[in-house]
Amino acid sequence: MLLDAARAGEDITAKQVLGRYEAQRRNQNLLMMQVMDSFYRLFSNDHLPLKLLRNIGLGAAGKLGPARNKVMRFAMGLEGPMPELARR
Predict the structure, then answer these.
(1) 74 in any annotated domain
(2) Confidence of residue 9 (pLDDT cuts 50, 70, 90)
């Protein structure tokens, strides 16, 4: 979005250009915020059955290297729909 605007001679700091970029990234950002909020709720809870499930899940996740790496890349913003500039 920003590269296209720059190529078209638009000011990439203009409110309209930045608004288009924000709209493009909004869903990915909201999804990541929801995931982080879920992790916070999961790890801040001391309810015994939940703690057991959490520990089992973490143990299993540690053994699933490719899946773990995919989740980590997504969390860093390196997976999913990405702007061209972020892929460079």
Answers:
(1) yes
(2) very high
